[in-house]
Amino acid sequence: MYEKGRLMMSEYSELAAQAGQGRLERVPGTIRNGDEAKAFLDSAFAKAAGTKTADEAYQLAAGRPPLNRPATAPSIMWRLRVPSSLDQRVRAYAQAENRTISDVTREAVDSYLTRQAA
């Protein structure tokens, strides 16, 4: 499909063929270099990732940071069942402390085992 003599972006095969042959014309105002290019790409990346900043997008793309410092081994994931009353208490505590349930659980288990060893 053509629009004013131009290919639509949905015609990938034809666009790729033209790009490979060097037949595509640059759209004025789309060439960016240096800091302007970095700012444009950071903005586009943040928008695509659904984050407010490029740093947040890069952190999201990098994945979860390791729990072990330095990262000598991957962290282990536990799955366990708890009564709904305990779930409600943990969730309320985590929310009040602005922490994750995982963080609260890790600290609670560590504290419990430390007390048992004493």
Short description:
The chain is 55% helix and 3% strand. It is mainly α and 118 residues long. Among the domains are: 31 residues; 34 residues.
Tell me what you see in this structure.
Helix content is 55%, strand content 3%. By secondary structure, the chain is mainly α. Among the domains are: 34-64; 84-117. The chain has a two-stranded antiparallel ribbon. The longest helix has 17 residues, at 101-117. The chain is elongated. The mean pLDDT is 84.
Helix and strand topology:
Elements (H helix, E strand, L loop, with lengths): L1 E2 L2 E2 L4 H9 L13 H16 L4 H9 L21 H14 L3 H17 L1
Antiparallel strand pairs: 1-2
Query: What is the straight-line distance between the termini?
Result: 76 Å
One letter per element, helices H and strands E, the order comes to: EEHHHHH
Widest sheet, order of strands: 1-2
Low-confidence stretches: none
The shape, in one word, is elongated
Largest sheet: 2 strands, antiparallel
Tell me the helix content.
55-70%
Radius of gyration: 25 Å
- SS field, number of helical segments: 5
Report the mean per-residue pLDDT as an integer. 84
**What fraction of residues sit in β-strands?**
under 5%
Number of strands: 2
What attributes characterize this protein structure?
mainly alpha; 2 strands; elongated; about 120 residues; two-stranded antiparallel ribbon
